[in-house]
Model the fold of this input.
Amino acid sequence: MLAQPHTKYPPFPSIVMPDRQWPSRSLTRTPTWLSTDLRDGNQALFEPMNREHKLRLFDELVRIGFKEIEIGFPSSSQTDFDFARNLVDSGRIPANVTPMVITQLREGLIAQTVRSVQGARRVIVHLYNAIAPVWREVVFGMTVPQIVDLVVHHVALLRRLVDAQPQTEWVLQYSPETFCMAELDVSLAVCNAAIEAWDAGPRRPMIINLPTTVEVATPNVFADQIEWMDRRLARREHIVLSVHPHNDRGTGVACAEQAMLAGAQRVEGCLFGNGERSGNLDVVTLALNLYTQGISPGLDLSDLGAVARIAEACTALPIHPRHPYAGDLVFTAFSGSHQDAIAKGFAAQQAGQPWRVPYLPIDPADIGRTYDGIVRVNSQSGKGGIAFLLKRDHGVEMPRRMQVEFSAIIQKMADASETELSSRTLWQVFEKTYLRPAASPACPRYLSHRCEAVPRGQRVMIDVEWPDGRVGTLEGTGRGTLEAAVDALGMPLRIDAYEERALRSGNDAQALAIIEAAVPHEPGSRFGAGRHADVATAAVLAVFNAASRLAG
Done:
């Protein structure tokens, strides 16, 4: 590293604005949210999402409550074009959700983009071009007037194309890419040129989106840039002012919050901050930050664990255990002093009163988390020791969330017995908890099962015994044995995770199936496990054992 880094990295200049207003304002309302998980987030993945994962994530974004969703870059690939057309032609887009498609300023690409969504009820077409000095001078070799002419020409082209299709409500979004690194007078010139070329007004809605394409300054500088633009944009009353923060300096959420103070009405980002380099704005974190300040975020994050599992499954990106709000360990205290403060806070907390529990900025129950494992859990070494002994002596490798759940159970036993728990005792507790939980009237005990192929899946017949001694057979169908077993139970059971393990090797090897399951609209999840020489049987046993724990 350089002893004098300023010789290579000159600081970004501050904005001269002595009468800035944003520092004295408070956040009082939620912005319009735009999810770019399917576009900006998707292009940053090791392997882009396939059609099935895209559709699953799209449906989840709709369920959560996003009203604007960027669905792709249709002119960049046939895959994105076909996905956009499929969404439009299938009628999968709800009437209250507006899709957005993005393209560069090129005539052929703009025409292709319009074709990808023609016939939709309402569409946002996002045009962008880079305007900062190094891009103008090094990448494009263009002057500012040439950049302005480029914007005017292509916005006018888009206007002609969409005016020929009045059955769709067309909204223009223009982004001066690299805005945060550009001169403000240049940014204003290109944005106002786009506004005039589109003729923004009550019947011609328009969004001006100002991105921190690459973070180069502190969030207060970005807020100054937003307020400066907010004061000077033409036809401001007809413009929705949007921001698209990235996270190169680790301050994407702070940039968005301060930009909202400065006049931004709309925010673009990804659910958990996925995106190129250090990622996009983390929408979940910003939304729940607003929630903890008494502002309804307008997004349903009441089962945040389920949202996280879907995002992980679709993107193949794990959520860090310390990720704000969503991480597996964010509500787990390993420090004794923290545990004591949290316990006292829970004891003092009264229903209907403002939340005042030390170390917990939000009530975990509000986002579908339970209080299990928050207070009086093992230290990290204790949790790690439990996992180590079960793996070493019994071949059981527990998923992280299962480790947290099981360590809380063991901690209660250790507190009650005031003695060291042996590896044998740990295994006995594991068996009783996950392999042989008590049956309940809502979930009988598994005896055996049979499968047969049916069109598009399997039918399973499961012999069971109820707690009162009655025996019977349950039947269910599904795409596979797991889904058919859930159907046979008849419970509103949702499988959040499924893993298989081999307990031993050789001819007498047994499979261990581990399932994380939940019941919709009920906080938290529970694990169940099944052990059998046959993997499918182990999976069915795991379903029954997880269901028994949830029913009990």
Observations:
- The chain has three domains: 25-315, 380-435, 445-551.
- DSSP finds 17 helices and 14 strands in the chain.
